[in-house]
């Protein structure tokens, strides 16, 4: 599959210089708020105040808190997409589909554990927003392609949704904080569930 077929997050239409500056100011202000007070402190009003601009500008640019938090995660997401689309195997092309899927799901698990606080805030702000985000669409497309190669007789679109369903911040918080599991234990569980050796 050509790289251009995947909906890469972060790809935006060319924008005016002032719009680009406003976007950067909003994202930087949001990142500062998260670093200083945690993601629960992120509101559209708080971000507007921290960025020194009107709240209407923040709403026009991002729409809601969930989209704003997802945008903060975007830089890391772009690097992740580069790795699974064009990077070295087993995550990138060149490895068997099962090996690529295992590597992919392990990295997704690591990312949720590392960025869980922001992801949980985005999930809570708008639970359904995940499925419309560029990040989810790219992951779903990638997993669908791998499932089509692994199980051509199945419906890869449905399987991809079902495989990605447990990869939500609330479950990972429950497993790592509530149950005290390490990231390696979570990934061993993924391997066992999916029959990876």
From TrEMBL:
Residues 20-80 form the HTH tetR-type domain. The keyword DNA-binding applies. Keywords: DNA-binding. InterPro entries: Homeodomain-like_sf, HTH-type_TetR-like_transc_reg, HTH_TetR. It comes from Microbispora bryophytorum. The keyword DNA-binding applies. This is HTH tetR-type domain-containing protein. It comes from the Bacteria. Residues 43-62 bind DNA. It holds the Pfam family TetR_N. GO terms for molecular function: DNA-binding transcription factor activity; transcription cis-regulatory region binding.
């Amino acid at each position: 599959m050509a790289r251009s077929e995947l909906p890469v997050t972060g790809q935006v239409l060319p924008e005016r210089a002032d719009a680009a500056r406003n976007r950067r100011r909003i994202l930087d202000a949001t990142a500062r708020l998260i670093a200083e007070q945690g993601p629960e402190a992120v509101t559209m009003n708080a971000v507007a105040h921290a960025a020194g601009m009107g709240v209407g500008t923040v709403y026009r640019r991002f729409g809601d808190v969930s989209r704003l938090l997802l945008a903060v995660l975007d830089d890391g997401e772009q690097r992740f997409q580069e790795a699974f689309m064009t990077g070295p195997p087993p995550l990138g092309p060149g490895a068997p589909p099962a090996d690529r899927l295992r590597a992919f799901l392990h990295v997704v698990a690591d990312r949720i554990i590392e960025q869980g606080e922001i992801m949980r805030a985005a999930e809570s702000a708008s639970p359904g927003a995940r499925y419309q985000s560029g990040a989810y669409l790219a992951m779903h497309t990638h997993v669908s392609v791998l499932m089509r190669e692994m199980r051509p007789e199945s419906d890869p679109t449905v399987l991809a949704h079902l495989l990605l369903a447990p990869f939500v911040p609330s479950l990972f918080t429950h497993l790592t904080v509530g149950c005290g599991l390490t990231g390696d234990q979570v990934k061993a569980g993924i391997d066992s569930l999916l029959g990876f050796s």
